[in-house]
Design brief:
The complex is a heterodimer of chains A (52) and B (500).
Chain A lengths: L9 H12 L8 H22 L1
Chain B lengths: L5 H5 L17 H12 L2 H11 L4 H30 L8 H4 L5 H32 L12 H17 L3 H11 L1 H23 L9 H17 L2 H8 L5 H13 L1 H15 L5 H9 L1 H30 L3 H4 L3 H18 L1 H16 L2 H15 L6 H4 L16 H17 L11 H4 L2 H21 L28 H10 L2
Classes of the chains: A mainly alpha (52), B mainly alpha (500).
Chain lengths: 52, 500
Amino acid sequence: VGDEQPALPPELEARIAALESTASSTDFEAWGWFWMVLFGIVLPGALIALGW
Amino acid sequence: LVSVSEPAAASADESAWPLLPSERTWGAARLTLTLATTAAATWCYLIGESVGSYLGFVRGSMALTAGCFIGMLLVLLAAGPACVRFGIDSVAATKPQFGTRGWVVPAVLQAVSIIGWNSLLIIFFAKSAVQLAVALGLLAPAAGGGARVPLLTLFACAVIFTALRRGATGVSLVSNILFAHVFVGLWMLYLIVSHRWPELVAARPALAAPQPLWNYTTGVELGIGTTLSWWPYIGAMIRMAPNGRTVVLPVMLGMCLPVPLLSLIGLAGVLVLKTSDPSQWLRTVGGPTYAVVSLAFVTAANFGTTTAGIYASAVGLRNFQALQRRSWTTLLLFTIMPVACVGIFIPELFFAKFGNFLALIGVAFAPLCGIQIMDYFVLRRRRLDVRAMYTQGPAQPYSFWGGVNPAALAALAAGCATYVLLLNPISYRSSSWYPHLTASLPAAASAALVYFLASSLVMRAGRGGYRRGAYRRGAYRHGADRRGANRNPQQAAHERQNAT
Protein backbone atom coordinates (compact mmCIF):
# COMPACT_ATOMS: atom_id res chain seq x y z
CA VAL A 1 0.00 0.00 0.00
CA GLY A 2 1.41 3.37 -0.96
CA ASP A 3 4.57 1.83 -2.38
CA GLU A 4 4.41 3.72 -5.63
CA GLN A 5 7.58 5.58 -6.27
CA PRO A 6 6.94 9.10 -7.55
CA ALA A 7 8.85 9.82 -10.73
CA LEU A 8 12.06 11.73 -10.30
CA PRO A 9 12.67 14.81 -12.44
CA PRO A 10 14.17 13.58 -15.74
CA GLU A 11 17.44 15.42 -15.18
CA LEU A 12 17.89 13.90 -11.73
CA GLU A 13 16.86 10.47 -13.02
CA ALA A 14 19.52 10.73 -15.73
CA ARG A 15 22.18 11.70 -13.22
CA ILE A 16 21.37 8.85 -10.85
CA ALA A 17 21.21 6.35 -13.68
CA ALA A 18 24.59 7.55 -14.92
CA LEU A 19 26.10 7.15 -11.45
CA GLU A 20 24.57 3.70 -11.04
CA SER A 21 25.87 2.55 -14.39
CA THR A 22 29.46 3.42 -13.58
CA ALA A 23 31.74 1.10 -11.67
CA SER A 24 31.42 1.07 -7.90
CA SER A 25 32.88 4.29 -6.55
CA THR A 26 35.13 4.39 -3.52
CA ASP A 27 35.43 6.96 -0.78
CA PHE A 28 39.07 7.18 0.24
CA GLU A 29 41.99 5.20 -1.08
CA ALA A 30 45.02 3.88 0.78
CA TRP A 31 46.98 7.12 0.53
CA GLY A 32 43.96 9.09 1.70
CA TRP A 33 43.71 6.90 4.79
CA PHE A 34 47.43 7.28 5.35
CA TRP A 35 47.19 11.08 5.34
CA MET A 36 44.09 11.02 7.53
CA VAL A 37 45.79 8.81 10.11
CA LEU A 38 48.94 10.94 9.97
CA PHE A 39 47.26 14.34 10.23
CA GLY A 40 44.16 13.36 12.18
CA ILE A 41 45.60 10.99 14.77
CA VAL A 42 49.42 10.76 14.83
CA LEU A 43 50.18 14.48 14.56
CA PRO A 44 47.56 15.62 17.10
CA GLY A 45 48.61 12.83 19.46
CA ALA A 46 52.23 13.93 19.22
CA LEU A 47 51.35 17.60 19.67
CA ILE A 48 49.18 16.91 22.69
CA ALA A 49 51.89 14.78 24.28
CA LEU A 50 54.63 17.33 23.55
CA GLY A 51 52.57 20.31 24.64
CA TRP A 52 51.45 18.69 27.83
CA LEU B 1 22.38 5.55 -23.16
CA VAL B 2 21.81 8.13 -20.49
CA SER B 3 22.64 11.66 -21.28
CA VAL B 4 22.51 14.89 -19.36
CA SER B 5 21.42 17.94 -21.26
CA GLU B 6 24.00 20.64 -21.90
CA PRO B 7 22.30 23.57 -20.11
CA ALA B 8 21.64 21.41 -17.06
CA ALA B 9 25.20 20.15 -16.99
CA ALA B 10 26.48 23.70 -17.24
CA SER B 11 24.65 24.63 -14.06
CA ALA B 12 25.05 21.36 -12.20
CA ASP B 13 27.08 22.99 -9.42
CA GLU B 14 24.10 25.25 -8.73
CA SER B 15 21.93 22.30 -7.76
CA ALA B 16 21.93 19.82 -4.89
CA TRP B 17 21.70 16.88 -7.26
CA PRO B 18 24.65 14.54 -7.66
CA LEU B 19 27.43 15.76 -9.90
CA LEU B 20 28.65 13.52 -12.67
CA PRO B 21 32.35 12.64 -12.83
CA SER B 22 32.72 14.85 -15.92
CA GLU B 23 31.45 17.86 -13.95
CA ARG B 24 33.83 17.40 -11.04
CA THR B 25 36.81 19.19 -12.45
CA TRP B 26 38.59 20.73 -9.46
CA GLY B 27 42.08 19.33 -9.00
CA ALA B 28 43.99 19.24 -5.72
CA ALA B 29 45.60 22.67 -6.21
CA ARG B 30 42.33 24.43 -7.02
CA LEU B 31 40.56 22.74 -4.12
CA THR B 32 43.40 23.60 -1.69
CA LEU B 33 43.34 27.22 -2.75
CA THR B 34 39.57 27.52 -2.41
CA LEU B 35 39.47 25.75 0.94
CA ALA B 36 42.31 27.86 2.34
CA THR B 37 40.61 31.08 1.29
CA THR B 38 37.39 29.83 2.86
CA ALA B 39 39.08 28.92 6.14
CA ALA B 40 41.04 32.12 6.69
CA ALA B 41 38.84 34.82 8.23
CA THR B 42 38.43 37.08 11.22
CA TRP B 43 37.39 34.12 13.33
CA CYS B 44 40.99 32.93 13.25
CA TYR B 45 42.25 35.66 15.50
CA LEU B 46 39.14 35.48 17.66
CA ILE B 47 39.92 31.79 18.20
CA GLY B 48 43.54 32.69 18.94
CA GLU B 49 42.35 35.25 21.47
CA SER B 50 40.20 32.63 23.21
CA VAL B 51 43.09 30.17 23.43
CA GLY B 52 45.43 32.95 24.62
CA SER B 53 43.11 33.56 27.54
CA TYR B 54 43.96 30.14 28.96
CA LEU B 55 47.32 29.06 27.54
CA GLY B 56 50.72 30.52 26.73
CA PHE B 57 52.03 30.73 23.19
CA VAL B 58 53.84 27.39 22.81
CA ARG B 59 51.34 25.19 24.61
CA GLY B 60 48.44 27.12 23.12
CA SER B 61 49.82 26.60 19.60
CA MET B 62 50.18 22.87 20.13
CA ALA B 63 46.79 22.37 21.77
CA LEU B 64 44.98 24.41 19.15
CA THR B 65 46.71 22.74 16.21
CA ALA B 66 46.05 19.28 17.62
CA GLY B 67 42.38 20.08 18.21
CA CYS B 68 41.94 21.51 14.72
CA PHE B 69 43.29 18.38 13.05
CA ILE B 70 41.14 16.09 15.23
CA GLY B 71 38.00 18.08 14.38
CA MET B 72 38.89 18.14 10.69
CA LEU B 73 39.31 14.36 10.66
CA LEU B 74 35.85 13.93 12.19
CA VAL B 75 34.26 16.22 9.60
CA LEU B 76 36.03 14.52 6.72
CA LEU B 77 35.03 11.05 7.92
CA ALA B 78 31.43 12.17 8.47
CA ALA B 79 30.51 14.19 5.40
CA GLY B 80 33.37 13.20 3.11
CA PRO B 81 32.48 9.69 1.93
CA ALA B 82 29.05 10.48 0.49
CA CYS B 83 30.17 13.83 -0.91
CA VAL B 84 33.19 12.47 -2.76
CA ARG B 85 31.44 9.35 -4.01
CA PHE B 86 28.33 10.97 -5.40
CA GLY B 87 29.19 14.64 -5.80
CA ILE B 88 26.59 15.78 -3.28
CA ASP B 89 26.72 18.46 -0.57
CA SER B 90 26.85 18.09 3.23
CA VAL B 91 23.08 18.30 3.69
CA ALA B 92 22.23 15.67 1.06
CA ALA B 93 24.81 13.41 2.71
CA THR B 94 22.66 13.28 5.87
CA LYS B 95 19.66 11.66 4.17
CA PRO B 96 20.73 8.06 4.91
CA GLN B 97 20.86 8.92 8.62
CA PHE B 98 18.04 11.44 9.10
CA GLY B 99 15.68 10.26 6.36
CA THR B 100 14.16 11.74 3.25
CA ARG B 101 12.40 14.39 5.34
CA GLY B 102 14.47 14.39 8.52
CA TRP B 103 17.45 15.91 6.69
CA VAL B 104 15.69 19.21 7.25
CA VAL B 105 17.19 19.23 10.77
CA PRO B 106 20.83 19.33 9.60
CA ALA B 107 19.77 21.65 6.77
CA VAL B 108 18.41 24.18 9.25
CA LEU B 109 21.57 23.82 11.37
CA GLN B 110 23.63 24.49 8.28
CA ALA B 111 21.59 27.47 7.12
CA VAL B 112 21.45 29.13 10.53
CA SER B 113 25.14 28.51 11.17
CA ILE B 114 26.35 29.77 7.80
CA ILE B 115 23.97 32.70 7.56
CA GLY B 116 24.78 33.66 11.15
CA TRP B 117 28.52 33.46 10.65
CA ASN B 118 28.31 35.21 7.29
CA SER B 119 26.39 38.05 8.86
CA LEU B 120 29.10 38.46 11.47
CA LEU B 121 31.89 38.25 8.89
CA ILE B 122 30.24 40.70 6.52
CA ILE B 123 29.96 43.21 9.36
CA PHE B 124 33.64 42.62 10.19
CA PHE B 125 34.38 43.11 6.49
CA ALA B 126 32.50 46.40 6.31
CA LYS B 127 34.12 47.75 9.48
CA SER B 128 37.61 46.82 8.26
CA ALA B 129 36.92 48.30 4.84
CA VAL B 130 35.83 51.60 6.42
CA GLN B 131 38.98 51.66 8.56
CA LEU B 132 41.08 50.81 5.49
CA ALA B 133 39.51 53.61 3.45
CA VAL B 134 40.14 56.07 6.27
CA ALA B 135 43.75 54.89 6.65
CA LEU B 136 44.31 55.30 2.90
CA GLY B 137 42.82 58.77 2.95
CA LEU B 138 39.86 57.81 0.79
CA LEU B 139 37.40 58.70 3.54
CA ALA B 140 37.57 61.42 6.15
CA PRO B 141 37.67 60.00 9.68
CA ALA B 142 34.43 61.61 10.82
CA ALA B 143 32.36 62.17 7.69
CA GLY B 144 29.51 59.84 6.86
CA GLY B 145 28.83 58.66 10.40
CA GLY B 146 27.14 55.31 10.81
CA ALA B 147 25.99 54.96 7.19
CA ARG B 148 29.33 53.63 5.97
CA VAL B 149 29.10 50.12 7.42
CA PRO B 150 25.61 49.46 6.00
CA LEU B 151 26.64 50.88 2.61
CA LEU B 152 29.77 48.73 2.45
CA THR B 153 27.75 45.71 3.54
CA LEU B 154 25.39 46.33 0.67
CA PHE B 155 28.33 46.74 -1.71
CA ALA B 156 29.94 43.50 -0.52
CA CYS B 157 26.68 41.59 -0.90
CA ALA B 158 26.29 42.94 -4.45
CA VAL B 159 29.83 41.83 -5.38
CA ILE B 160 29.32 38.39 -3.82
CA PHE B 161 26.00 38.01 -5.61
CA THR B 162 27.63 38.91 -8.93
CA ALA B 163 30.51 36.46 -8.38
CA LEU B 164 28.23 33.62 -7.30
CA ARG B 165 26.00 33.92 -10.34
CA ARG B 166 28.71 31.73 -11.86
CA GLY B 167 28.18 29.05 -9.20
CA ALA B 168 31.20 27.19 -7.84
CA THR B 169 33.34 28.85 -10.50
CA GLY B 170 32.61 32.17 -8.79
CA VAL B 171 33.88 30.79 -5.47
CA SER B 172 37.03 29.55 -7.17
CA LEU B 173 37.50 32.88 -8.95
CA VAL B 174 37.24 34.88 -5.74
CA SER B 175 39.65 32.45 -4.06
CA ASN B 176 42.18 32.88 -6.87
CA ILE B 177 42.11 36.63 -6.38
CA LEU B 178 42.15 36.65 -2.58
CA PHE B 179 44.44 33.70 -1.83
CA ALA B 180 47.44 36.01 -1.26
CA HIS B 181 45.90 37.15 2.01
CA VAL B 182 46.83 33.80 3.57
CA PHE B 183 50.51 34.64 3.00
CA VAL B 184 49.96 38.15 4.35
CA GLY B 185 48.59 36.52 7.48
CA LEU B 186 51.67 34.31 7.77
CA TRP B 187 53.88 37.36 7.32
CA MET B 188 52.02 39.08 10.14
CA LEU B 189 52.62 36.06 12.32
CA TYR B 190 56.31 36.12 11.46
CA LEU B 191 56.47 39.80 12.40
CA ILE B 192 55.07 39.42 15.87
CA VAL B 193 56.97 36.22 16.62
CA SER B 194 60.30 37.61 15.42
CA HIS B 195 59.88 41.00 17.09
CA ARG B 196 58.47 39.88 20.42
CA TRP B 197 59.65 36.29 20.98
CA PRO B 198 61.10 36.73 24.50
CA GLU B 199 57.92 38.51 25.67
CA LEU B 200 55.79 35.95 23.89
CA VAL B 201 57.22 32.90 25.64
CA ALA B 202 57.19 34.71 28.99
CA ALA B 203 53.60 35.99 28.67
CA ARG B 204 51.00 34.55 31.03
CA PRO B 205 47.38 34.02 29.96
CA ALA B 206 44.94 36.36 31.67
CA LEU B 207 42.12 33.94 32.48
CA ALA B 208 44.02 30.71 33.10
CA ALA B 209 42.24 28.36 35.47
CA PRO B 210 44.13 26.95 38.48
CA GLN B 211 44.01 23.46 36.94
CA PRO B 212 46.58 23.27 34.09
CA LEU B 213 44.82 20.28 32.55
CA TRP B 214 41.59 22.28 32.22
CA ASN B 215 43.43 25.04 30.35
CA TYR B 216 45.13 22.60 28.03
CA THR B 217 41.95 20.67 27.31
CA THR B 218 40.16 23.92 26.56
CA GLY B 219 42.83 24.75 23.98
CA VAL B 220 42.26 21.38 22.32
CA GLU B 221 38.48 21.75 22.57
CA LEU B 222 38.55 25.17 20.93
CA GLY B 223 40.47 23.67 18.02
CA ILE B 224 38.08 20.73 17.66
CA GLY B 225 35.04 22.99 17.80
CA THR B 226 36.50 25.34 15.23
CA THR B 227 37.07 22.76 12.53
CA LEU B 228 33.84 20.91 13.33
CA SER B 229 32.11 24.09 12.23
CA TRP B 230 33.45 23.38 8.74
CA TRP B 231 30.86 20.64 8.38
CA PRO B 232 28.31 22.94 6.69
CA TYR B 233 30.90 24.19 4.20
CA ILE B 234 32.89 21.14 3.26
CA GLY B 235 30.45 19.20 1.07
CA ALA B 236 29.78 22.00 -1.39
CA MET B 237 33.54 22.31 -1.99
CA ILE B 238 34.82 18.75 -2.07
CA ARG B 239 32.02 17.54 -4.33
CA MET B 240 33.73 19.53 -7.08
CA ALA B 241 36.77 17.21 -6.85
CA PRO B 242 36.65 13.97 -8.84
CA ASN B 243 37.49 11.45 -6.09
CA GLY B 244 38.64 10.86 -2.54
CA ARG B 245 42.28 10.80 -3.57
CA THR B 246 42.05 14.45 -4.61
CA VAL B 247 40.31 15.54 -1.44
CA VAL B 248 42.19 14.41 1.67
CA LEU B 249 45.38 16.51 1.52
CA PRO B 250 43.58 19.70 0.38
CA VAL B 251 41.19 19.35 3.30
CA MET B 252 43.89 18.61 5.87
CA LEU B 253 46.41 21.16 4.63
CA GLY B 254 44.19 23.70 2.86
CA MET B 255 41.12 23.88 5.05
CA CYS B 256 42.56 22.84 8.42
CA LEU B 257 46.16 24.03 8.67
CA PRO B 258 45.56 27.75 7.93
CA VAL B 259 43.16 27.97 10.88
CA PRO B 260 45.66 27.20 13.68
CA LEU B 261 48.43 29.04 11.83
CA LEU B 262 46.45 32.25 11.41
CA SER B 263 44.94 31.87 14.88
CA LEU B 264 48.46 32.25 16.22
CA ILE B 265 48.23 35.90 15.12
CA GLY B 266 45.43 36.44 17.62
CA LEU B 267 47.08 34.22 20.22
CA ALA B 268 50.36 36.13 20.03
CA GLY B 269 48.59 39.49 19.88
CA VAL B 270 46.49 38.93 22.99
CA LEU B 271 49.44 37.55 24.98
CA VAL B 272 51.93 40.31 24.18
CA LEU B 273 49.89 43.37 23.21
CA LYS B 274 46.60 42.53 24.93
CA THR B 275 44.64 42.76 21.70
CA SER B 276 43.98 40.08 19.11
CA ASP B 277 43.06 42.58 16.39
CA PRO B 278 46.11 42.66 14.08
CA SER B 279 45.21 46.09 12.69
CA GLN B 280 45.78 47.49 16.17
CA TRP B 281 48.94 45.66 17.13
CA LEU B 282 50.57 45.95 13.69
CA ARG B 283 50.36 49.71 14.07
CA THR B 284 52.34 49.29 17.30
CA VAL B 285 54.87 46.96 15.69
CA GLY B 286 55.36 48.58 12.28
CA GLY B 287 53.50 51.88 12.08
CA PRO B 288 50.55 52.95 9.91
CA THR B 289 51.74 51.15 6.74
CA TYR B 290 51.58 47.80 8.50
CA ALA B 291 48.16 48.70 9.85
CA VAL B 292 46.92 49.31 6.29
CA VAL B 293 48.28 45.91 5.19
CA SER B 294 46.55 44.29 8.13
CA LEU B 295 43.24 45.94 7.35
CA ALA B 296 43.51 44.82 3.73
CA PHE B 297 44.15 41.28 5.02
CA VAL B 298 41.10 41.28 7.27
CA THR B 299 38.89 42.77 4.55
CA ALA B 300 39.97 40.22 1.94
CA ALA B 301 39.80 37.29 4.34
CA ASN B 302 36.22 37.90 5.38
CA PHE B 303 35.10 38.53 1.84
CA GLY B 304 36.45 35.19 0.59
CA THR B 305 34.91 33.23 3.46
CA THR B 306 31.53 34.89 3.07
CA THR B 307 31.48 34.10 -0.65
CA ALA B 308 32.13 30.41 -0.01
CA GLY B 309 29.63 30.34 2.84
CA ILE B 310 26.82 31.83 0.80
CA TYR B 311 27.51 29.35 -2.00
CA ALA B 312 27.44 26.39 0.41
CA SER B 313 24.27 27.66 2.03
CA ALA B 314 22.54 28.16 -1.33
CA VAL B 315 23.40 24.61 -2.43
CA GLY B 316 22.15 23.29 0.92
CA LEU B 317 18.84 25.13 0.55
CA ARG B 318 18.48 23.65 -2.93
CA ASN B 319 17.62 20.34 -1.23
CA PHE B 320 14.25 21.81 -0.27
CA GLN B 321 11.72 20.78 -2.88
CA ALA B 322 10.16 24.25 -2.96
CA LEU B 323 13.50 25.73 -3.96
CA GLN B 324 14.57 23.12 -6.51
CA ARG B 325 12.75 24.78 -9.39
CA ARG B 326 13.73 28.33 -8.51
CA SER B 327 16.40 29.99 -10.58
CA TRP B 328 19.93 30.17 -9.17
CA THR B 329 19.59 33.96 -9.06
CA THR B 330 16.47 33.73 -6.89
CA LEU B 331 18.13 31.21 -4.60
CA LEU B 332 21.18 33.43 -4.22
CA LEU B 333 18.97 36.39 -3.36
CA PHE B 334 17.12 34.22 -0.86
CA THR B 335 20.44 33.28 0.78
CA ILE B 336 22.13 36.65 0.69
CA MET B 337 19.17 38.81 1.77
CA PRO B 338 19.25 37.81 5.48
CA VAL B 339 22.98 38.56 5.57
CA ALA B 340 22.46 41.94 3.89
CA CYS B 341 19.53 42.85 6.15
CA VAL B 342 21.50 42.06 9.30
CA GLY B 343 24.51 44.05 8.07
CA ILE B 344 22.38 47.03 7.04
CA PHE B 345 19.75 47.27 9.74
CA ILE B 346 20.95 45.59 12.95
CA PRO B 347 24.73 45.15 12.84
CA GLU B 348 25.40 46.18 16.44
CA LEU B 349 22.46 44.28 17.90
CA PHE B 350 23.50 41.17 15.99
CA PHE B 351 27.07 41.50 17.26
CA ALA B 352 25.86 41.72 20.82
CA LYS B 353 23.28 38.95 20.83
CA PHE B 354 23.94 36.38 18.12
CA GLY B 355 27.37 35.13 19.18
CA ASN B 356 25.89 33.04 21.97
CA PHE B 357 23.33 31.53 19.65
CA LEU B 358 26.05 30.54 17.21
CA ALA B 359 27.97 28.91 20.06
CA LEU B 360 24.90 26.83 20.89
CA ILE B 361 24.34 25.86 17.25
CA GLY B 362 27.98 24.76 17.03
CA VAL B 363 27.34 22.18 19.75
CA ALA B 364 25.32 20.09 17.28
CA PHE B 365 28.09 19.42 14.77
CA ALA B 366 30.06 16.96 16.93
CA PRO B 367 27.03 14.66 17.43
CA LEU B 368 26.15 15.02 13.76
CA CYS B 369 29.61 13.77 12.81
CA GLY B 370 29.35 10.88 15.28
CA ILE B 371 26.03 9.80 13.77
CA GLN B 372 27.28 9.94 10.19
CA ILE B 373 30.50 8.04 10.95
CA MET B 374 28.65 5.31 12.85
CA ASP B 375 26.04 4.97 10.11
CA TYR B 376 28.41 4.86 7.17
CA PHE B 377 31.36 2.86 8.47
CA VAL B 378 29.70 0.53 11.00
CA LEU B 379 26.01 0.10 10.24
CA ARG B 380 26.00 0.39 6.45
CA ARG B 381 29.54 -0.87 5.92
CA ARG B 382 30.23 1.89 3.40
CA ARG B 383 27.20 1.09 1.24
CA LEU B 384 24.92 3.93 0.23
CA ASP B 385 22.04 4.07 -2.19
CA VAL B 386 22.18 7.31 -4.12
CA ARG B 387 18.74 6.82 -5.67
CA ALA B 388 17.16 6.39 -2.25
CA MET B 389 18.50 9.78 -1.17
CA TYR B 390 16.24 11.47 -3.70
CA THR B 391 13.22 9.16 -3.70
CA GLN B 392 10.21 9.77 -1.49
CA GLY B 393 7.68 7.12 -0.53
CA PRO B 394 6.93 4.88 2.44
CA ALA B 395 8.71 1.81 1.04
CA GLN B 396 11.88 3.62 0.13
CA PRO B 397 15.04 2.67 2.03
CA TYR B 398 15.67 6.05 3.65
CA SER B 399 12.03 6.83 4.40
CA PHE B 400 12.11 5.31 7.90
CA TRP B 401 8.84 6.57 9.47
CA GLY B 402 7.27 9.39 7.51
CA GLY B 403 10.66 10.26 6.10
CA VAL B 404 12.22 10.77 9.54
CA ASN B 405 14.63 8.52 11.43
CA PRO B 406 13.91 8.88 15.15
CA ALA B 407 17.22 7.16 15.93
CA ALA B 408 19.14 10.06 14.42
CA LEU B 409 17.07 12.66 16.26
CA ALA B 410 17.51 10.83 19.57
CA ALA B 411 21.24 10.50 18.96
CA LEU B 412 21.56 14.18 18.06
CA ALA B 413 19.73 15.18 21.25
CA ALA B 414 21.87 12.82 23.34
CA GLY B 415 25.07 14.20 21.82
CA CYS B 416 24.05 17.81 22.41
CA ALA B 417 23.04 17.02 26.00
CA THR B 418 26.37 15.30 26.59
CA TYR B 419 28.23 18.34 25.32
CA VAL B 420 26.30 20.80 27.45
CA LEU B 421 26.63 18.60 30.55
CA LEU B 422 30.39 18.49 30.08
CA LEU B 423 30.90 22.11 29.05
CA ASN B 424 28.54 25.03 28.88
CA PRO B 425 29.54 26.60 25.55
CA ILE B 426 28.64 30.11 26.70
CA SER B 427 29.76 30.32 30.32
CA TYR B 428 32.52 27.67 30.00
CA ARG B 429 31.39 26.06 33.24
CA SER B 430 32.45 22.43 33.07
CA SER B 431 32.03 19.10 34.78
CA SER B 432 34.88 17.25 36.46
CA TRP B 433 35.09 14.88 33.48
CA TYR B 434 35.67 17.62 30.93
CA PRO B 435 39.42 18.15 31.52
CA HIS B 436 40.03 14.47 30.82
CA LEU B 437 37.69 14.03 27.86
CA THR B 438 37.00 17.38 26.11
CA ALA B 439 33.33 18.03 25.28
CA SER B 440 33.15 17.50 21.51
CA LEU B 441 34.66 14.01 21.46
CA PRO B 442 32.29 12.55 24.11
CA ALA B 443 29.39 14.33 22.39
CA ALA B 444 30.29 12.64 19.09
CA ALA B 445 30.87 9.28 20.83
CA SER B 446 27.62 9.36 22.81
CA ALA B 447 25.63 10.33 19.73
CA ALA B 448 27.26 7.49 17.80
CA LEU B 449 26.49 5.01 20.60
CA VAL B 450 22.86 6.08 20.94
CA TYR B 451 22.51 5.96 17.16
CA PHE B 452 23.97 2.45 17.08
CA LEU B 453 21.62 1.19 19.80
CA ALA B 454 18.53 2.92 18.44
CA SER B 455 19.33 1.74 14.91
CA SER B 456 19.14 -1.88 16.07
CA LEU B 457 15.45 -1.21 16.72
CA VAL B 458 15.14 0.49 13.33
CA MET B 459 16.68 -2.59 11.71
CA ARG B 460 14.35 -4.92 13.56
CA ALA B 461 11.45 -2.92 12.17
CA GLY B 462 12.92 -3.41 8.70
CA ARG B 463 13.33 0.31 8.09
CA GLY B 464 16.22 2.39 6.86
CA GLY B 465 17.50 0.16 4.07
CA TYR B 466 19.84 -1.64 6.47
CA ARG B 467 20.61 -5.28 6.09
CA ARG B 468 19.90 -7.16 9.26
CA GLY B 469 23.12 -8.06 11.04
CA ALA B 470 24.93 -5.43 9.01
CA TYR B 471 27.27 -4.58 11.85
CA ARG B 472 28.19 -8.20 12.50
CA ARG B 473 31.47 -9.42 11.15
CA GLY B 474 31.18 -10.89 7.69
CA ALA B 475 27.57 -9.94 7.11
CA TYR B 476 28.49 -8.09 3.96
CA ARG B 477 31.05 -10.45 2.60
CA HIS B 478 30.57 -10.80 -1.14
CA GLY B 479 28.13 -7.90 -0.97
CA ALA B 480 25.08 -10.16 -0.81
CA ASP B 481 22.23 -10.12 1.67
CA ARG B 482 22.23 -13.85 2.27
CA ARG B 483 19.77 -13.64 5.13
CA GLY B 484 17.12 -12.08 2.94
CA ALA B 485 16.08 -10.07 5.91
CA ASN B 486 14.97 -6.90 4.26
CA ARG B 487 11.51 -5.56 4.80
CA ASN B 488 10.17 -6.46 1.41
CA PRO B 489 11.45 -8.01 -1.81
CA GLN B 490 11.16 -4.74 -3.73
CA GLN B 491 13.42 -3.04 -1.24
CA ALA B 492 15.91 -5.90 -1.27
CA ALA B 493 16.07 -5.95 -5.05
CA HIS B 494 16.36 -2.19 -5.12
CA GLU B 495 19.30 -2.31 -2.71
CA ARG B 496 21.12 -5.08 -4.51
CA GLN B 497 20.84 -3.15 -7.71
CA ASN B 498 21.71 0.26 -6.46
CA ALA B 499 24.05 -0.02 -3.50
CA THR B 500 27.28 1.25 -4.93
